[in-house]
Fold these 3 entries.
Entry 1:
Amino acid sequence: MNFNNELEKEDNLVSEIEGENSLSIEDFIKELEAKEKDLHISSDLAIEIDEADFDDTNSEFIRSEFAVEPVKMPQTAKPSVNNLAANNKFVAELEGEILQFKKQVVKLETERAELAETIRRRQLDFDNFKKRIERERGETFLSQISNLATQMLPVLDNLNRALDFSAHHSEGRSQDFHQFFEGIFLVNQQLNEVLAEMGVSQIASVGEHFDPYFHEAVATETSGEFPPNTVTGELLRGYRIGDKIIRAAMVKVSTSAPVRPNPTNISPENNLKPSEDILETE
Amino acid sequence: MSKVIGIDLGTTNCCVSVLEGGAVQIIPNKEGGRTTPSVVGFTEKGERLVGQIAKRQAVTNPTNTLHAVKRLIGRKFDSAEVQKMRENVPFEIVEAPNGDAHIQVLDRVYSPPEISAIVLQRLKLAAEEFLGDKVTEAIITVPAYFDDMQRQATRDAGKIAGLEVERIINEPTAAALAYGFGKQKSEKVAVYDLGGGTFDITILEINDGVFEVLSTSGNTFLGGEDFDQRIINWLIETFKVENNIDLKEDRLALQRLKEAAERAKCELSSVMETTVNLPFIAADSTGPKHINTVLTRVKFEELVLDLVESSVEPCQKALWDAKLQPNDIDKVILVGGQTRSPIITKTVTEVFGKEPSAEINPDEVVSMGAAIQGGVLTGDVKDIVLLDVLPLSLGLETRGGLFVKLIARNSTIPLRNTMTFTTVVDNQQSVEIHILQGEREVSSGNRSLGKFELVGIPPAPRGVPQIDVSFEIDANGIVNVSAKDKMTGLEHAMQITPSSGLAPDEIDRLIMEAETSVEKDKEVKDLIMLRNRLDSLLKNTRRAMVEYGKSLEVKQQQEINGVLGEAEDVLSADDPKVLEEALKKAEDAANKLTEALMVMA
C-alpha cells in the first residue's frame, strides 16, 4: 500500500523523533481521535483497517501512536452479512479518510522533525558563534592596535629614512640644521615610545637566525661574517604585538654558497664569535 | 552530522569557508588572512611551511619552495603545460615512473597531490579551530576544464589531508551557486574569472539543478600579477627618466614599488586618481630621491589595455563554442580579485552586453559556493539540488585513430552506456580498447585514460563479431569499462585509475604520513625554537663575558666559559632534552654573571 511505502521511506526520521513527541503532536492525535469518534468509527471497523494497514513491521510508530484503538481484535466481531454491502462502502470511505489523516500525521511529523533538526543546528551554530565572538573580543584590543600600527608604520619608516639620510649627510651643515635634526630625532624617539607603550615591539633581526615567522627574506648574500641562514641586514623593521606579527621584518639573509645542489650534511652553523658587529644597535 | 567545508584550491591562493547559521562564513587562517597563498616550503631542517610563512622564505630557499602546484596536478610530465612550467619555476619537476609530473624536494620526490594536501591540511586545521569541532568532509572546487585525472588527483589530495571529498565541483558552478542562480528558472551564466595567475571564462547552463558547462576558454598565463607589473615598470621608467637611477637593481626599492603598485591598483578601483608616495626610495650625490607621482585611472587603463583585451578573445571563443550570442547570456559573474578594476567591468559589459554581478567578494565567491554545496549535503540548504555532470566526454579510439564518444560531456552521473563495436579485418582475434576523455574528433587530441585488450575472438569475417563496450560511471566519478564478445561471452573489464595518479595503497600510506607529520612539524619547530633560544643566550652571555667577564674571579670565569663551551657543543644536537639541559645550565651561568655584575655595581 502507498501508505506503507511512504512510511517506510520516512522510517529513519520517525524512529529518530520517537520518544520526544511534543505537545502539539499529541494535541493533534487527540484531535484526530475526536474526529474519528465523530465519524462513528467503532472498534469493529478498526480490525479491518488494522489488517489492511498494519501488517508491516515498519509501522511500529503508528501502532504506538494509535494505541488507544484496540489493534488486535477477534475475527468474530465482524458486522452481520445483511448490512455488509452498505457497511463496506461506508468502511471504505472512512478508511480513505483515516488514511488521509494518517498521511497528514506523517507529513507533519516529518516537517516537525525537519524543523527540530534545523533549530538544533542553528543552536549549535549560534553557540559556536558566541564562543568565537567571546574569543575574538579578547583579541579586539590587540587587533585594533595592530590595525592602527599597520597604517602608522609606513610613516615611521619614512621618518626613519629621512633621519638615516640626514645622519649620513650632516657634514658641513649649519648649527641650525643640527639642532633641527636633533629635534626630529627626538620626535622619532617619542613615536617609538608611544608604540612601545601600546605593546608594539620591534622584531630583532640582524644576527638572528632567519625565521620566516618573523622575517621576510627579500635577498640573499654570501657572508663571511655570518653563519648561513642568518639575517645579515634589515631593510625594513618588523613589528609585533605580543605573539601577533604586525609586519615581518624585511631582511637580507646569508647563504653558505651561491649554488648548493645537494644539501645533504646540513647542520646549523654555530661558530658564534662574540663579534661586536652582531650588536647592531639602531 | 558535522560540517562540510568548502575549499577553493587556487593556483595562487586558497580560500575556505563554511555554512553557519544559514550564512557562509569565510574561515581565516592562523595569521588572520581570509585567503592563504598556495605555497609550501620545505626547510633543510625538515620543517614544512605553508602560506604566507612559506612565501617569506622563498627567496632563501627557492628550490624547495613550491608554488602553483595546481598547474601540475593530474598531469603528465611530457605535457605542454608541465614543460612550460619547468622553464618558469626554480624548483625541480621530475618524471614519475608512471609518467606523471612529480616534484623533487631535498632528497624526496613528492606528487602534486601530496603538496596540495599540505595546504589542505592547514585549511582543515584552521576550520577545526574556527568551528571548535573535527572537520572530516569537504567540497573542493576545480576549473571546469579539469579532466578525470586532475579531478581524481585533487580528490586524492583531500584524502591525504584527512578530508573525505564529498564532491568535486567546478569553480564557475560554485560561483553561480554563491549567487543563488538557477533556483527557479533555467539560466545561461557566463563566469569571468581573472585570478592571480590564470584567466578562465566559462559558460554554464543551469536547468533544474543541473549545471552544464557549455564551453570554457581562457589563458593559463594571465592574471592580476601582470597588472601590478605594468604599474611597477611604469614607475621605474618614469623614475629613470627623471633621476637617471635604475630601481630594478635595488631589491628593497622593488619590494616597496610592488606593494605601492598593488595598493595604487586597488585604490584606482574606487577613485579616479591616486598618489604613489615613496619617500627616500633612492639617493645619489645630489641628495635623496622620492617618488611622488599621481597615477590616474586613465593612465592605468592605458598601461593594461592589451592585457584586458587579451581576455576578450577567449570570451568570444567561449560564446562561439557554446553556439550562443551575447544576448543569450542571462547573467555574468565576476570572479578573482583583478575583476575589481572598473576597466574589467567595462570590458565584460561590452562583450556580453550586460552589467556583470559583482556583489560578492570575488576572492571568496568560489569558496562560498562550495560551502553552500556542503550545506546541501548536510541538509542545511534545501532549495538547491546540484547534480554531478561528466566534465568531458568519454569514449574509445576506433579505426584510423578516430574518437567515438560513448558518454557525452555534461551527462548527469551516475550512468551507464553500451555501444556495439566490431572487427576491422578478417579473422581478427583481438581488439584493443583504448579509453579516452576529451572533445576532439581525433583520439590523439584527447587524454588517454587507459587501454586493455579483449583477446580470443573466434575467427570470423570482419564486421561479423559483435563486441559490446560498456562505460559505467558511479556517483564518485569512477569510470568502469568492460568489453564483451556477444558470441563467446568473453569479457574483460578495467577500472580507470592505474595508468596514472596514486594507487590506493599509496594514498593510505600518505594519509598516515600526513597525520604524523603535523606532530612532527611541531616537534621540529619546537626544536628549532629551543635551539634559537640557546643560541641567543649563548651569544648574549659571551658578549657580556667579553665586556664584563674580566671583573669576575678567574674561577667563575672558567666555570661560565666551561658551561658556554659545553652548550655550544650540543647546539646542533637533535635531542630536545639535551638542548633543554644545556639551556638550563647556560641560564644558570648567565644568572650568576648578572648577579656578580649587580653586586659589583
Note: The CA atoms of residues 123 and 129 of chain A lie 10 Å apart.
Entry 2:
Amino acid sequence: MNKHADIALTNAAEWFLACGVEDVPENGGACVKYNDEQLAVFNFTRRGEWYATDNLCPHKKQMALSRGMIGSTGDAFEPKVACPFHKKTFSLITGECLSDDECAIKTYPVKVEDGKVYIKVVG
Amino acid sequence: MPVTVKPTVVVIGNGMVGYKFCEKLVKKSSGFNIIVFGEEPRRAYDRVHLSEYFNGKTAEDLSMSSLEWYADNNITLHLGDPVNEIDRDNKTVHSLKGVVIKYDYIVLATGSSAFVPNIPGVEKEGVFVYRTIEDLDMMKDHAKKVKKGAVIGGGLLGLEAAKAMMDLGVEETHVIEFAPRLMPRQIDSAGSTMLQAKLSELGLKIHLNKSTSSIDGDHKIESLSFFDETKMDLEMLVISAGIRPRDELAKLSGLTVGTRGGISVNSSMQTNDPCIFAIGECALYDEMIYGLVAPGYEMAEIVAANLCGDNKSFTGFDMSTKLKLIGVDVASFGDPFITQPACRTIVFEDTNKGIYKRINITNDGKQLLGGILIGDAESYNMLLQTTTNKIVLPPNPEDMILGSRGGEDSGAGVMSLPDEALICSCEAVSKGTICSAVTEQNINSVEGIKKCTKAGTGCGGCVPMIKDLMVGTMEANGAYVKNVVCEHFDHSRQELFDLTKINEIKTYDEVLGRFGKGDGCEVCKPVVASILASLWNDLILKQDTIQDSNDRFLANIQKGGTYSVVPRIAGGEITPDKLIMIGEVAKKYNLYTKITCGQRIDLFGAHLNDLPDIWETLIDAGFESGHAYGKSLRTVKSCVGSTWCRFGLHDSVSFAIEIENRYKGLRSPHKLKGGVSGCIRECAEAKGKDFGIIATEKGWNLFVCGNGGSKPQHAVLLAADIDNETCIKYLDRFLMFYVKTADHLTRTATWLNKMEGGLSYLKNVVVNDSLGIAEELEAAMQTHIGTYECEWKAAIENPEMRKRFNHFVNAPNEKDPTAELVPMRDQVKAKEW
C-alpha cells in the first residue's frame, strides 16, 4: 500500500531536482518520475506557490493528478487539485480528500532555486 | 510523551453486521485496537444479494470491502478462525487456531445458521442449506446432474433458494411449504394466492399445507415422503425452514440466552456481561430476533456510538420489506395483517396483470397503518414513509395505490415528507440529510449522495426516492436561488458570457480578476474556457490549464490513463484510402478501434506521448480533429439520401457534410449533435439530435432540441418546408442563441424545457427575430466560421505545445508504465480498475 516505503528507508530529507520552472505549465501540473515512483508537481502561478503530491489518485488508482485542474476552495482559499477522472478534489497542503473522507494523498515540500524545481521526498 | 493504551475490541463474526460495526467504529474514533475473527474463509460479503452469485457476480463482487480496507484502518482480521472460548475471568478470547487475545470489549456478531428441522434423512447427499457462498458452491456442483429439485420452506429465503435452483438449470423446481400460504410472515392469503399464480406462471411448482415426513434414498436423496402419504421423486433438496441464532459460544461462556435461542441483550445491545455486546441475527432483544440487515446495522451503530461515549439505545425496528422475488415485486410494511374492526382496509386485485395491493387505514381515514403489495411495489417507499411519519392521507386514500385517476395529483410526493423522515433505513439517513447534501454541498448525482451520506449503499431499495428528493431539491433551489457558476463567481453563465463579451476579455485570469474571487476551480475554469472559446474562437491550448482534462490534451481520457482519438468524418462519408490510413495508424500504435454511434471511428488506448505522432500521421492523410473531447459540435449523422436510396428526396449526405463543416469546432455549453435524413423514414434519427433536418417534397423540415441520453426527448419542429439557405440561417441563429444563453452542461432539450415561453418564444426569436438580435447572432457565427482552425494541426506544429504531451516532464521519452492494456477479441482493452 505504502508506495513510498522504499523512499522513506533511504534516509534523510533528500531534495531532488525534478525539472525546470518552465517545464510546468502556468497554473497547472506536470508528472515527475522519481525512481519507480510518480509525483505530481504544480506551478500555482496565480499565488506564486509550488506544490507536490502523489500522482496516483487513490479513488480508482489512476496516475492522473498531474493532469488535473487546480484551484482553491473555502474562505481560507485552500489550494486543491481535482482528479480528471471523477473530479475528486484533494488539498494541496494536507493531501486530504475534500470531496469525501475516504482517501487521501501524500504531499511533499517543494523549493525553487535558480529556475530549478526541487522536491523533498521525505517530509 | 504520554503513552496511551488503546482499548481492544474483539469482534467475533465477520458477516455484514460485524463488518458494518467495524466501519462505523473506525469512522467515529481511531482510539480502539480492533481485532476481528471470522469463521468463513472470506471477508464479509453481501448475503442479501447472495442469489446474484448465480447470475455471474463473483464472491469478490459481493464482498463488502477490499482487503486493504482492514489494513488501512489498522484492523487485524483472522479469517477461517472461529473463536471457541471466551475466558471472562481473565478477559481473553481463544481461537481455534490458538490465537489468544486480551480484550476490553467483545462484540458478538455471530449471526445465524440455517434451521434444519429434524426430518429423517437430512444427512443424505444432495440435501443443502442456503446460507453461505460455500453452500452455493456445493449446490452449483451438485445441480449439474439434476433435473428435478425442491425447496422446503416457502418463506423469503426459500423462494430465493428456489430462484437459485432455477438459475442453476434445474428443469423442474418445487417449493414445499408447511403453512397454508407463501411468505406467511409478510403477506396475507389473498397476496399469497396472487404471488403463487405469478410464480407458477414462471415455472415454479408450489405445494402448500404440505409437510415432509422423511427424505428417502440410499445415502443419496431419491425421493421425499409427506405426511399426506404422497411421495415425490427428486435429486436435490434445499432446506430453508428459518434461521437459528448462533449463540453456542455465548452459552458456553455463561452469557444469558433465550429459551428458543438468541443472546439476550438490553437496549444498549449489552449482554449480562457489561463488556460483551451482541448485534445482528444472534441478538435477542425484547424476546425478538431481527432477521433483516437494516436492524442489524442499527444495532452496530448503537454499540459503536456507546463505545465512543454517546448514549444511544435500540427501541425495536420497523420490519417492512420490499424485494423482487423471481422478477415479482413483493412488499409488506407497517402492520400488514391488522383487520376490521381495528381498521379499514382498501384492496385492489387485478388477476389479469397479477397485481394485489392492500392498505390498512385508521377508522377515521386519516392515517395509514400498513399494507401489502404484490406484482407492483412502485409506491412502496411513499406508502412506508406515509405510515412511519403518520402523514395525513389525501381525501381519497385509494389514490395511493391506484394513482390519481383524472384531476389533480394527490399530494406533492416525496418533497412533502418531513425532514426527519427516514429514507434509507439500512444506513439511517433522513430526508433532511439528503436534501441538505444537495443544497449545501451542491451534490447533484445519486452517486455523490451515496458517497456523502451513505444513503442507498445498503440494500439499494431507496435509490429511486433519493433521486426524486435530489431532483426535487434542485428544482426548489433553482426557483429561489440564483444559479451561480461556483463559489468563485457570483454570476450565472449567461451573465459571465455577456460581461466577458462587452469587456472584450480574452483570458481566464482577467475574467476571474474582474468578476470573481479566489483562485478558481475545476467548475468555473471549464465554464469560462468554453465562453472564451465560443466568443473569440482562439486556440484553446493557449490556456491549456483552464481546460477540462479532455480539452487540455485534445483527446478523451479513458480508464487506465490512455486516450482515445477521433478524427472528423463529416456526415459519415469516408474514402477507402482514409479508411486504410486509420487502420494503419491503429495497427502501428496498438489501438482498439470501434465505429461510434455518430458514424465515425474511435481509436482507443493511445499513450499521451503518442498523441502528437498519431495526429501528425492523420493530418498528413487529410484528417482533422473531430472535437470528440470538447463540449462542441460532434457529428452530423446522415442517411445515404437521394444519391443512392430509392426513397430519398434530397441529397442528405451532402447537406450533412456542409452543416458539419460549418459548425465544426463551435464550443457550446454542452455537446451538440445533428442529423440529416433524406426522407420521412428518418434513418438518420435526426429527431433524437440537438438539431435534425428531414427532407420533405418541398424542402426541409428543421427540428430542434432533441437528444438521446438518459432522458430521451424528440426534437420539435422549428420551421417547415424551408430551402438550404433558410435552414442554415435559422440554424446559425438557433445555435448562437443557445451558446449565448444556456447554462453550462445544459443540453438544448433541457434548455428549451426551462425556457420561459417555450417553443413559441424560441420560434419568435429565431424565425421572427422578436429580440432584434438575429443579425448579431448570424455575425457571431460568421466570426466563428472565419476563425476556425484545426486544434490538432496547430498543436503538432508548435514544439512548445507538443512538449505538453510528455507523460514525465523529466523523462520525456518514457510512457506511463502504469497504463495497462489487456487482450480482448483480437484487440486490446483497458485493464479493469
Note: Residues 20-120 of chain A form a domain with the Rieske Iron-sulfur Protein fold (CATH 2.102.10.10).
Entry 3:
Amino acid sequence: MPPFQGTLGTVELRIPSKAEWVAVARLAVAAVANRLNFSIEDIEDVKLAVAEACTNCIQHAEGSDQIQITCEAGSDGLTVRVRDFGRGTRPEGIQSRRMDEPRVGGLGVFLIRSLMDSVEYDVNPERGTNLVMTKKVAR
Amino acid sequence: MDIKVNVRETKGDTYVVDLNGEIDVYTSPKVKDAIGELIDKGHYNLVINLEKVRYIDSTGLGVLIGGLKRVREHGGSVNLVCTNPQIKKIFDITGLVKIFGIYDDEDAAMKALV
C-alpha cells in the first residue's frame, strides 16, 4: 500500500489499551482528518474506523497494554496505522462477519472494511497486530 | 465523553429510553445495564430514543441487538428514534435497518409497537 502523494506530515499517538481512552484516539484522528479536505461524512467514517480498530485491540489483543496510532497525512488522503503490542490478535478479532444474522459482536471489522478504502492486517505473535487503513480525499 | 440515560414509562407498559451523548466501548455498558434492567423487570416493549446521540460504534449496536433479541424471546420489540444521517448510515451499512424499526419521531415509534 503506497503512501499518498504529497506527504503533509505524520502524527503519532499512543494510548493505554483501555476503553476510556478510545475517545481520545478517535478525536485526535478526526482532528488530523479535518486538516485535509475530507467531507464531514468522511471524517466521521475515519473516526469510527479508528475507534473500531482500537476497540478490537482492547478486546482481542492479549498481553498488550498500549495502542499506537499513526496518521500519515497526504494531500490526497490519509493513512492510519493502529498497532497493538500483544501476542497476536485472535482470529475472531479480525474477521468480518456475515451480516445476514443479527447477533452481538463482530460488527467492528465489517464497519472498518465498509468505511475505509483499503484495510490490511499484519498479525504477528511476536510484534502484535498492525492494521493499516487508508481513506482517499474525494475529488 | 459520556452517555446520559433516562428511562420513562409511557402508556401501555411501553418504556422509552432516552440516550444523550456518545455510545462507545466505554459508555455502552451503562446503556446495556439500563436496557437489561427494564427487561429483567418484565418490560418487553421499548422505544430507544437516539435523537441526542452524536456517535455510536459497534459495541453500542451490539447492546441494541442484544436487547432486541431478549425482548423478542418474550414477544416484545424495540423501536428506535433516529434522524442523525451518520448514525442512520451505520444502521444501513450493517443491515440493521432490516431488523429494527427506525422512526423519525417518538410518536411514530410508539404507535408502531402496538
Note: Residues 3-113 of chain B form a domain with the Transcription Regulator spoIIAA fold (CATH 3.30.750.24).
